[in-house]
Amino acid sequence: MIVSILQTDIVWAQPECNAQHAERLINECKGSDLYVLPEMWSTGFATDPDGIAETDSQSLKWMQKMAEKKQAAICGSLAIKDADGSYRNRHYFVKPDGSYQLYDKRHLFSYGGEDKNYTRGEERTVVEYGGWRFLLLTCYDLRFPVWSRYRGDYDVIIYVSNWPETRQRVWEILLRARAIENQCYVIAANRVGNDDQCSYVGGSCIIDAKGTTIVESVSPTEQELTAELSKEKLELFRNKFQVLKDRD
User: Fold this and answer.
1) Catalytic: which of 29, 70, 95, 105?
2) What is the pTM of this model?
3) What is the CATH number of the domain that holds 121?
4) Spatial distance between the Cα atoms of 192 and 173, rounded to a whole number of angstroms
């Protein structure tokens, strides 16, 4: 499985512009099986979504178009206003045939006011694609290990994020911890640039089940990062070093 992270600089509340940024990066890394975008990649992290959250599925349709064109999966989260009027931070995983699965962010970032306007999700989502099982999670979920605990149901955790520079060291430590404690790959896509509240320096990466970084961003710039995941190596490690059978 070849995976590419698209570490983008998000232009505030301009979905078309942000789709163009993402498309340029996708075209620079041909041949991947999965492309991963950051959290709220089409608008920026809008804790007050009124007038910003999408209602017409514009960005989802773009994801479906690109997935079909590249014959690859694409995932990332969007600020969505549902038909019932509720707002969701919705992580989409779109497959090459246009079908998709979704995960609504469980842990809303109360420190930044996200919980005041969004409705949290109630269910975990594991996506099967290309012989792999992906657990979809979003940003602040990273701080809550019980929610992400391996239950024999996934091989990879995908975190899509707008994680600020001020807590970058926390990001690096927790990503490695989640990979080690769950004996899984971790794919983490973060943004770069600035909004009215924060600066972002990326740090997007892919980590293996032993906590070893396979690829990571070393500069706070818009870029793509590509690595290959090995199912054989993952299963060999899990079978040889069966830590999880002793879990509580």
Assistant:
1) 105
2) 0.98
3) 3.60.110.10
4) 19
Range of the domain at 30: 2-246
What's 198's DSSP letter? -
Residue 111: strand, helix, or coil: helix
3-state secondary structure of 193: strand
Asked if 39 is an active-site residue, the reply is yes
Chain-centre distance for alpha carbon 51: 24
Using an 8 Å Cβ cutoff, are 226 and 194 in contact? Answer: no
Token reading at 170: 């926390």
Catalytic residue among 139, 184, 205, 222: 139
Give residue 178's identity as a one-letter amino acid code: R
Neighbours of 174 (CB within 10 A): 19
Q: How far is CA 83 from CA 1, 55, 61, 102, 183, in A?
A: 36, 8, 17, 16, 39
Tell me which of 29, 39, 70, 75 is the catalytic residue: 39
CA atoms of 136 and 34, how far apart (whole Å) = 13
Compute mean pLDDT per 10 residues along the chain, 248 residues long, and list them: 98 97 93 97 96 94 98 98 96 98 98 97 98 98 97 98 98 98 98 96 98 97 97 98 91
Coil, helix or strand at residue 248: coil
CB 178 within 8 A of CB 158: no
Provide the 8-state DSSP code for 166: G
Count structural domains, the chain: 1
Instruction: Report the chain's terminal Cα–Cα distance, integer Å.
Output: 31
